[in-house]
Every structure is written in structure tokens, then in C-alpha cells.
## 1
Amino acid sequence: MRSAFVPPRRPSDLVRYLIPSLLVAAFLFFYTSDIDFFSSRLATGSHPIDSLIRAAEKSFTDTLAKETFTLADAATAYRERRGRHPPPGFDAWHKFAAERNAIVVEDFWDQIYNDLEPFWGLKPARIRKDAWDFEMRISVRNGKATAESDWFWTQIWLHMIRTIEHLLPDMDLALNAMDEPRMVVPWEEMKDLMDLAEETRTMPDARGVISDWAKRPGLGRDVEPDEKTTDKAWEHTRPYWLIARRGCPNSSLTRHARTLRNFTRTPMIASPFSLSHMHHGFVANTTLAADFCNQPDLQALNGIFVEPLSVSATKVLFPMFGGSKLAVNNDILLPAPMYWSAEERFMGTEEDAAIRWEDKLDGVIWRGVATGGKNTAHNWRSFQRHRFVAMNNGSAVSMAEKEGRVENFVLPANGYELRAQENKQLGEWVEQWSDVRFVDLMCDTADGEKEGGCDYAERFFQVGWGMTMAEQFGYKYLPDIDGNSFSGRYLGFLRSTSLPIKATLWREWHDSRLTAWKHFVPMDNRYGDWYGIMEYFLGYEDKGGHDEIAKRIALGGREWAHRVLRREDMQIYVLRLLLEYARVSDDKREQMGWVEDLVE
């Protein structure tokens, strides 16, 4: 059975020569034509979002049809999708899930196998050694989880793992304490590892399958005294784009695009690079939308690529766990600490989140800090939150309309047919429904700027007052914008009765459980579709909106989040993840599995 996760083959020489030509052609296309995302809309008179919502409904229905209800059916679905027997302990995992009324659809755990598959290409002893010999780790011995570090993320993850520790074999988990992910293995090496992993994909005869876990040495003893810890050769290269792009296929546009180093000017926002994931101007594929490997313009549109707060990366694959990652990172995902801790500043309260749709203000709210990395006088125009806040400043939009002067965004393409834009009143219209402000400019003070503020940002942004989650839930529309990494408020937004509008480059544990346009509204990372999304829902003058559809998605997302994004679902996900991790770390992994349903 061929793995669904094997990277594409290396390109031919012809393809490599064609890449630079394609880049040039894409840029020429952008500058010489008004990109037509909208031909079918013009021909049929229907709105593209209508068809995206219909497609989402069908996709979600198809997913639910895969739900299994018995242990035997779950094991069958596992073998069909993974090409292996389930891991030892699968029966205990299924019982744990059933007792918590979990929805069991095998697709929901795809991220686990994306993350762990390349480790089947490494020696198990190396995996164990690298995990044990890391300064920040959680260890499980004899059904008890411990951690020496008192870092608050470590303690939150430890608390989560302790709720399932009695079901776990011995293991060590290396943890990432940074906002930013740590591993980018070159694509060519990942391809080789995936090929090696594929060779291990087998389902041995049930009579020879092993289900007993190996015991590991006690906490004070080296787990592999004869194995040398791999040298991680930590890198601190900036811009991070130079590190990130090596994880892209050699045939990708990003691998061949010129690296930008000057971010003092208005960034180029090249819509042609979004064509693969857009349906007539709106996001149709969120996985491709978050994959920058064929979107080289994103290197100047997100702070992680420009100037992250910290850079400490390695080319070496080792089992490090973290809360989020970019498409090219090789970290193993856990539910983020703020999701498990459920702090009110990130989640709000259930009472606040349950405000009736009809009682909310018919507009947009966003409050946040100017994060995304280290913004300075020389690079702030390339930060995503600065761009989004500017696009919601009616005065800035009106100036762009009248004088063509913009600092860090572009006006929407004509194909969106925005009535307010046609009337030269886009800025005035935005002012009517948008309340988007920074609460802290997070200024760089290295150049002698005053603490808490700076001339380079204060000329363009007015700091607003902070708002609690309870206050934000009083609005119908909640855009969610990446910060230094993922946004910790997303789960709170999903659990509310407001409508999340999500733009992100980051992958999280729950991605395969959510359906765009069914549970949330996706947005491109350039934000060029922002005004079109809002016109669809709010309308403009005699151009009717779609309030009932917005309500349906908001409440549908809330209901679904309360079914598959609970703390119990995080426990179930982590238990499955760690059983698989324990197996891939075991010397007898190819003979290990759960096969009681196959043995008479």
C-alpha cells in the first residue's frame, strides 16, 4: 500500500530550468492583466461563496459517513488508511474514546501520521537517545509522567499527559519551548526518509505480531549508552525564509525565488501565486493556502519569514514536540498549551461565548498586540497584523482610493465587484462595520525610540483600548490573524456563537477535524479577499447580505467544536499519538501491533 504522505519525486532537469521562467511569467501576468478569478460568477450570476459552502457541506457529510462505532470497525478503518496494524494498546485507546463519547473517524488522526511517518526511516535507538538527551522533556516510566523543567508550557503539557499516563508505555518526549518551530529537514532528505519508511509498511501475519512494550531504564540512567546523540548544529540564520524554503520540493517556486532582504517599501502582493488554492477569489483549499512553497511573495508578507523573535533551527530530524508549525517543519504536534489550560484571556467563558446571534453587533472586532516577530522601522510593512489593521482603517483605505498611496496593502482586485469600491466609498463603508485596533505596538526600541511607542508606527496606527473575550463575543465577526506563530484565541472563537474568519500559515493538531466554509470562514494570507467576504455577509446598500448563512456557519462551528475539540478530544488525540510514537521508537516496531480482532 503506497503511503499518501510520500513527497513528490525529484523533478527532471527540464523542470528545474522551467522554474525561473514560470516565476517571471507569473509576475508579468500580475502586472499586465487584471486577474480574473471570477469568470464563472460573471457567467452564472451566482456568488463563488455559495458554491464553496455547498462543497463544504458535501465534504463534511462524506467525512461523517466514515464514522466507526465498534473496535473491530475502527481497526479495519485503521488498516485501510495506514497500511499497518494498529499499535499495541489500540483497544484501550478505543475504550478510552468510547467512554468519552468521541466521534471516531480515522481521518481525524491524519496529522499524527504526517508527523511520525519519517521517523520510520530512522533507527529506533537514535530516536530514543535524541529524545532522552534533550534539556526540556517529559518522561514516562511505569505509568507515571514527570518533568524536570518548570517552564509553564512544559507543566501544562505534563498536566495533560498525566491524565492518560496510566495507559502509556515508557518513553521520553523532547519539547519545544519557543513560539517558533525548530526543525526544517531538507526536502531531499525527507524524501529519502519517507522512502525508507515506506519499506517498513507491512501487516505481518497476526500470529507473529508482538503487543508487549519494552521497558526503559530509570530516570537517572542513560536510555542508550552505546548510541551517540546527534549533533543538531542549531542555526540562527536570518531571514528565516532561508531556512524554511529548504523544506520545499526542489520543483517549487519558493526554492528558486530570489530571497528578499529589503523590507522598507510597500511589499508586492502577487495574487497569481494564490490561484491554486482559490475559487474565483475565495479560499477553496486551506492546506494549499497555508503552504508557501509555491507562494514566494509570502516571504514579504509574514513576520516569521522577515524577523521572527528568535531563530534556533536544525536540519536534523529528531522527535521534538510542539504546538504548531509551518507546512515545512518536522516538529510533532501536540494540542497547544493555551488550548488545554483554557485560560479565560484566550477562551473566554462558556456563558460569554453563548450570546445569541441576534443580540450581537453586526460588525467586526479585533484586538491584538503587534506581534509576528520583531517589527522595526525598516520592516513593519511586511508584518501580517500591521497589514490587516491598516486594511481596516477607513481613513487609510480612503486615502488609497483617492491618492493611490498605500504603505503595506493593496486595494481589492476589480473582479470582486465591490459596490462600495465602485462608488469610491470603500473606506467609508469599512468604517461602518470594522473595529480593528492594536492594543500595543510592540515597538523596537534599539534605535532610541521611547518605551511603549515609536514614531515609525504611531504615524500609521492609533493604539486602542483592550477588550476581554466576553466583549469580543458581542460582535458577529471575529477575524483571527497569526501572531508570532498560531493564534491562541482560535479555539475560543470556534466555541463561540460568533463567526471566525481565519487566515493562517500554521498547522495545528485539529486541522483535519474542521471543514472550511462549514465550521469557519477561511481567508487568504494576503487578505485580498477580506472585503469580498464581508460584503457577502453584510451586503452594501441594495446589495443584500447573507446574515442567516453567517449565523449557520457560526453555530455549526460552535456545535462541532463542542463535539470534537473538547479537552477529552485532546486527551484522545495525545493518547493515540503517544502510542504510535512509542511503537516507532521500539526496536521491534515492524512486528508490533494490535491484532486481537484477527486472532480467533
## 2
Amino acid sequence: MPVLFSLVMSILFLSLSSFLSQKWRYEKDKLTSFECGFDPMSSSRTPFSLRFFLLALLFLVFDLEMLLLFPYIFSVSSVSVSMGVVSKIWAFMFLVILVVGLYHELNEGTLDWNKE
């Protein structure tokens, strides 16, 4: 019953807000970037370095890997011996997959910053 009530209230609020809101007309000036009232001198879409994007993505992957390993390190001491072996196998497999991925990225040249 509370789920149904929440669903009905959500639909009611969404329909009420769309009914009461002003409909904006999009003009050409509203869709361009603002540069002190003058026409823009260049496009606001600037290119970005794909190499930097890939390196940042790899950093996030390995940063999350550390985030996932910290709780494992602290919980190993409180696990029984039989579960400890299974959890060590899973942690080893996790690290092997990450090292294989790092090796692949190294061979692919993603980590070579000066490569043209």
C-alpha cells in the first residue's frame, strides 16, 4: 500500500509541475554560449585528449580496486580457516585479472604518454 501511495503521489507531483510550469520558447540566442553579449569567437566544443581520458579511466579502475581490497585486508583475520582459503583464492584471482588487464594496457600503449 505505501508503494502504491508513493507511486500515485509521484505521478501527481510530476503532472502538476509540468502543468504549472511555463513553457519556454527556445530561441537561437538561448542555445548559444554567452560571451559578454558578443557573438562567440570560437566553438564551445573543444577537443579533448583521448590518451588522457584513457589514462584517467585506468586510474579510476585501479583506484576502485584499492577500495575493494581494503575491506578484504581487514576482514581476513576474522574469518575461519576454511573460509580464509576460499577468500584468499578469490582475492588472488581478482589481483591476477587486474594484473593481466594492466599488462594488456601496457602492451596496447595506453600508458605510454609520449607515444604519437
## 3
Amino acid sequence: MLKNNLSRYFPAVLSGTALVFAFPTFNISMLAWICIVPFLISLYRMDGYTAFRAGLFFGLPYFFGTQSWIYYSVNHYGGISLLPSLLIVLLLSLYESLYTALFGFLFAKAVKRTDLPLTIIAAPLWGSLEYIRGYLFSGFPWSLLGYTQYKSLPIIQISDITGVYGVSFLIILVNASLADLYLLKVRQKEKPLFPKWKTLASSAVTVMVIAATLFYGIHKLSSVGTETGDTRNVRISIIQGSIEQDRKWNPAYQRNVFNTYKRLTTEALKEGPDMVVWPETALPFYFGMDNDRTEELTEFVKKSGVPLLTGTVMVKTRPVNKDPDVNSNNGYTLSNSAVLIDRAGNPTYFYDKIHLVPFGEYVPLKNTLFFLDKLVEGIGDYTPGKNYAKGNLSWGKFGTIICYEAIFPGLVRKFFRHGGNLIVNITNDAWFGRTNGPYQHFSMSIFRAVENRKPLVRAANTGISGFIDAKGRVLRTTGLFKETYITEDILINDDTSFYTRYGDVFSFLNIIFTVLFFVKLSNKAGKTKKYQGGVT
């Protein structure tokens, strides 16, 4: 029995494990196009519930392997020991594996009841579930298949129409086509009248879709940034303070932290930037509440004559007649924010982070889950922002996304529906340590640039900071945990992509197709049962 179970689920485990190596930091991106084939083939001979379990066995190594960095955050900064930290990652992976388990269940059911090619079943189904995973229960669209291709520029240009989900669709399409060809003789043997031409036609269509995607990508790589004719260069300096997480808010180090950013900025100013960007929560004080340090900062910017965008914790409301101890979080309302200080030293733009990190920046359903606290130490619970505000300078407009927000395609596009020129991502990836987390986080930013056809500037406290153009090309980056600054001229434009205008139309079509397909399949099965039961 044990031997049978091992052999039955081995293809799923093999596929899920191999898929990990397609993501950063291994970056064997070609694996993604073939490694899911064993899993799909194994589902063919399974009943629905066995396929559900196979989906779990596929998802567990896939998600645990790509998200193992989470243990570092909760272990090092949440005060949770190693084994419970790993258990938290395992539980999250188990939850995410429910999506691949549901995929296995529905896929196996569909294959038994239709002679359609596997591509028609697998690609829309996977695309639908991947999209839903990005929104349900706050959403966590990490480890999306499409992210394995962040270096494959001709392939990912299609994201300006479909979002990253379209690249995931293509990957499953190819895997399903290969599985289809492998199973062709098996299906013909079991069903002598099985229409071979459908499988061959589906494979031909897959080849044409990939060819069309590559053609589109090559065309876009040669044309993006020139379509409106209104392009211009802007010079940006990124300051990477590389401040250790346990020192950021330690009163003994606050002066040193502040001076580090001022010193690096003074050096960067020699390169003549149009704007300087500091990372998420770079300020070791509460902007606007600590009057002395706030004035020191605005005077520094005024003297430099160059606008500064920086991350800061803002005190939105404060209790009356209370001891001003913000860290106690007793009656204070805080936000994880960005502030732009213009060349005259005036704060002219504020943005409050909209999509907060559950169990990191707030506890969801706090009244119900009263027994849970945040998994990492912080200042307090943050209040989410509501406005997709853009900063405005003489050279153009920019939207600011803070840390975790960069993994949500639908959120980022909302900044640019009515125009804009630049995406600025400020983040603090010190939480990830020297794991695969910072590399994966950076790779997702490449897709946000391509989806919206906007260059992206990424300022990270400990790295990876960098510049990405509107085609997804990485122009320059920093190393991890290095105190440094970088300056780059980037080309901004007034283009608006299809994805920016209309959002996840492709994903919605996937969902509609999938629902209609399985409704029809269910009705067909119901009629067959009635017929077999003698009902006319």
C-alpha cells in the first residue's frame, strides 16, 4: 500500500520540487515549461479525490520551497523559535496547496468526461485559480508561475495586455500540450474513436500562440517608449542605507541612522539628480510629530534644492491628554506612508500604504482572532490608506507603492489609469535576510513595469535597489546589505497600456470560460446518469 502511494504521488512531488528551481535564486526558467508535465500525466489515471491529494503533494514542495524565506522573518523578528517558524510556513503552504489540489480534482474530473485536449482544460483552470489566490482572504500572489520568466523579455511583454497571469497561462499551455501528446496513444487505446486530430490541432495552436507571443514581444522591445513620441529623461538617485532592522527604531541609533541617509544623499547630489528616493520607513522618527527632526529634514532638502521622496511612519490621529508614547499604540492611529518634500522644503505629497501585510502590519479580524498577535515586531497596527495618490514634479507624475504592494498587479495599475510617468517602489526587505525573498520580490517588480509600460525605481533599505525600464530591462541594481547609492537616467513616457486601462480582462475571461465549461460538463454528466437510470 505504502509503495503504491509513493509511486502514485511521486510525479506530483517531483513536479512541485522541480518547479522551485525555476524561481529565483536558482533561475532555471526553462524548467517551468516542462516540469509540470509529470504531474498532469499522473492526474489522468486518478479519480477526483486522489487527484486532490496529488495536488496537495504538488503544492507543498512548490510553495514551501519558494516561500521558505518567511521562516526567517518570524524567527528573527517575531521571537518565534525555528520549528514553530517552519510550521507557520508549512501551514501557509498547505493553504496555498488547496488551490493546486482543487486544480487536480477538477482537471481529473474533466479529463474523464471529455475528449477535449488537455490544454483547453488546464490553462484556463490554472489561470483562474492563480488569479483567485491573489485576491481571496486579502490575497497572496507570490510564486505565480509567470514570475519564473522575469528574465525572458520577449515572453513577458504580453503582460501589458494580460498581466503576469497571461505568462502563467502560456506556461501551463505548453506543459499541457506536452502531456497531451504523451497521452495521445493511451487515450486512443482506451477510446478507439478518440479524435486524434483535436490533440494535434491543439498542439499546433499552442505553437502558434507561443510564436505570436514572441513576435509581439520582439516588436514591443523595439517600440515601447516611442509610441506617443513624448519621452524624456529624468535622473533619479536611490539611497540604500542598509540599516539593520533591530537598529532602525532603537533610540540609541536614531541619530546615526538619520546621519547615514543625509551623508549618502549629500554624495548622490553631486551627480545632479532630479529627485532623491529613500526607502520604506527610512526616517527613524515620526514625520510631522517630531518637530525638531522634521524641521532638520526639510531644511536639509531645502538646502540641497532637490526633491526628496521618503518612507515614514505617520501619526494620523493621537489621543487627547495621553503620554506621547506612540510605541504603546494606545489610542494612536499610524500609517506606513511616503512623503515628498519639494526643493523648497515643503511636504507636497503624502501616500498611505493601502494593502497592508496581514499579521505583519495588522491582525485581520482582530476582534475574532484576539488570541493572535503580529508575527513580527513592529511599531503598532497600521491603518490602511484609501487614495491612489500620485506625486507631481516638474518632469512628470509618479505613483508610490510600498513594499508588499508591488506583488499586486491590480493595485499598481490603479495609480496610472488616468496617466502618470513613473512607478516608485520603496521597500524594506531587511525582514527577508539573506534568503531568496529579496530576489523574488525584485523579480515581481519587473512585471509591474512591463504591465503598465512605466519605468520603475526601487529603493530598498538593504537591497535589492534598482532601476527597471518600461520594457522590463534591469538597468542597474545594488547588492544586498550594502550601504550605497546609485543614480541613473531613466526614460519616462506618457504611454498607457491595455492592462493599465482595462485591468485583468484576460483573467476574467479565464474564469468565465472555466465556470461555463464545468457547468456544461456537470449538466452533461447529470443527463448521462438519468439516461443510464432509465429516465427519458
